[in-house]
Design goal:
- By secondary structure, the chain is mainly β.
- The protein has two domains: 319 residues, Glycosyl hydrolase domain, family 43 (Tachylectin-2, Chain A, 5 Propeller), CATH 2.115.10; 154 residues, Exo-inulinase, domain 1 (Jelly Rolls).
- The protein contains two helices and 37 strands.
- It is globular and about 70 Å long.
């Protein structure tokens, strides 16, 4: 009887999976997505043996959150990804009636075998992650090691390495701090809005260095901290430390913030007033971003999870942002974050024979002007990099994923515009089609009081995702778009005056 019930349940499950409608029209081309099923946070990004390695929070069984494990993928260029088997699966302990889910964390290359885990004394990969017990309602920090290049991991026999007997204590991010000759971990107490820093000589025995917080935005639990040293543009040899964390569910919705200051191997000192909350991304989905360890030439590259909205996708859910090069710029208000699509990705795009390229110069825009086949655009996966001159009183920008009827009336579109009178950039998805958009997030904005009519916009459209980099990455807005059937149009527009596109480069990535 039990076998019969099991078979019936299995058939119902398979039937449900078979009936799930695929949404391949929204499947990104040049952003990371899992082959199937659910993904959330990036975990353990590291450059290893000539490859960009990323693990990811993944449900190996279903297209929804749960059964958290570390999925695994590698790339030579951060553009094309090879999916590999799950690297660290959830652990089921039937004797205790408990399950350990493999929550977020980081990975380091222990080149000097400080841990003693490395076979033959050579280097090995060590993962540091939060072990989450949904039954015991506890989170603690575990480590695991790999001697096969990160394909599989062995959990440390004496886990946990840090245990505060707390329900919420998670997301360790670890790096080697050369100045103090130790491994440093940033990890958070979410409800307390506190980042803790721990030090270790061997990745196994950790001691508390200091705490930071509460500070900045405290309207939701803190998650996914990372601490990284960044160069300051135009100031050779000058660096500052940046502490990132994420918070979702408060009055700001999905929010990621950063603090700029100094780190001496023990404590992080904030340059700004404690209440200052600096924004990483002005969209409604960029979250849990962490940097790559050991990037070539000391590169500082960040990748984040784009939190899915209410629109269902299949056979996958969730994707990562474009990897971003990071630096700082000194401004009148202090040091501020700069983000650009990673140079590694840009080189791959420009060197790929499948990418169509075109350019525009000195185009006067005083109405809506379509872009299309003449400009190499054939679908909804492309980059636009445009230098605009927009006079006071005018509004200008792009209309993407457009669908029109036979008479030319707009059926659906997403508008990316700059209102020169209001000094505001906006993304308007109120006419984006029938797909589900987060309520209250149909229109998203960035105030740009420093812009005086000269504006650079880099627009990355990838089937269902949109990233807008403003003025070389001084501000970024990331969100989802869901083109309606037939919604492939793209136009430039201006109202209230004549705008000029001084130069624009276009890359069509639809055939990658």
């Amino acid at each position: 009887m039990k076998n019969t019930i099991f078979l019936l349940l299995l058939l119902l499950c398979l039937r449900g999976q078979a009936q799930e409608t695929e949404t391949l029209q929204w499947r990104p081309v040049y952003h990371f997505t899992p082959a199937t099923n659910w993904t959330n946070d990036p975990n353990g990004p590291i450059y290893l043996h000539g490859e960009w390695v990323v693990y990811n929070q993944q449900n190996p069984f279903e297209n929804k959150w749960g059964h958290m494990s570390w999925g695994h993928a590698v790339s030579r260029d951060l553009l094309h990804w090879k999916h590999l088997p799950v690297a660290i699966p959830e652990v089921i302990d039937r004797s205790r009636g408990d399950t350990t889910w493999i929550f977020s964390g980081s990975a380091v290359w222990d080149k000097d075998n400080t841990s003693g885990f490395c076979a033959g004394g050579k280097g090995c990969l060590v993962a540091i992650y939060t072990a989450h017990s949904p039954n015991l309602h506890k989170e603690s920090q575990y480590i695991a090691y790999s001697n096969d290049g990160g394909m599989s991991f062995t959990n440390y026999a004496r886990n946990p390495v840090i245990d505060l007997q707390k329900r919420d204590f998670r997301d360790p991010n670890v790096f080697w701090h050369a100045q103090s000759s130790q491994w440093v971990m940033a990890v958070v107490l979410p409800a307390e809005h506190v980042a803790r820093f721990y030090g270790s000589a061997d990745l196994k025995d950790w001691h508390l260095l200091s705490e930071f917080g509460p500070a900045g935005y405290t309207g939701a639990h803190w998650e996914c901290p990372s601490l990284i040293e960044l160069p300051v543009e135009g100031m050779p040899g000058v660096t500052k430390w940046v502490l990132f964390n994420s918070a979702a569910g408060g009055d700001r919705g999905v929010f990621m913030q950063y603090f700029v200051g100094d780190f001496d191997g023990k404590a992080f000192t904030n340059d700004n007033a404690a209440a200052t909350a600096l924004t990483v991304d002005y969209g409604d989905c960029f979250y849990a971003a962490i940097p790559w360890n050991d990037a070539p030439a000391g590169g500082k590259i960040l990748v984040g999870w784009m939190i899915p909205g209410p629109q269902h996708t299949a056979p996958w859910t969730g994707q990562f942002s474009i990897p971003r090069d990071l630096s700082l710029k000194k401004t009148a208000a202090g040091y501020r974050l700069q983000q650009q699509p990673a140079a590694v990705v840009r080189r791959a795009v420009m060197g790929d024979a499948a990418v169509s390229r075109s350019s525009v110069a000195d185009l006067v825009v005083d109405r809506e002007i379509p872009l299309g086949a003449a400009h190499g655009l054939s679908g909804n996966a492309y980059w636009l990099d445009a230098e605009w001159s927009i006079p006071t009183g005018a509004t200008a920008g792009f209309k993407i994923i457009q669908a029109k009827d036979a008479a030319g009336a707009v059926l659906s579109e997403t508008v990316i515009g700059y209102d020169a009178a209001a000094h505001q950039l906006y993304v308007d998805r109120s006419k984006s089609g029938d797909a589900k958009i987060k309520p209250g997030k149909e229109r998203q904005t960035i105030d740009l009081p420093e812009v005086s009519g000269q504006l650079r916009l880099q627009v990355l459209v990838d089937k269902s995702s949109l990233e807008v980099f403003v003025d070389g990455g001084e501000k970024v807005l990331t969100t989802y778009v869901y083109p309606a059937a037939g919604g492939r149009g793209c136009s430039v527009f201006a109202t209230g005056g004549k705008a000029v596109i001084k130069s624009m480069r276009i890359w069509d990535l639809s055939k990658l």
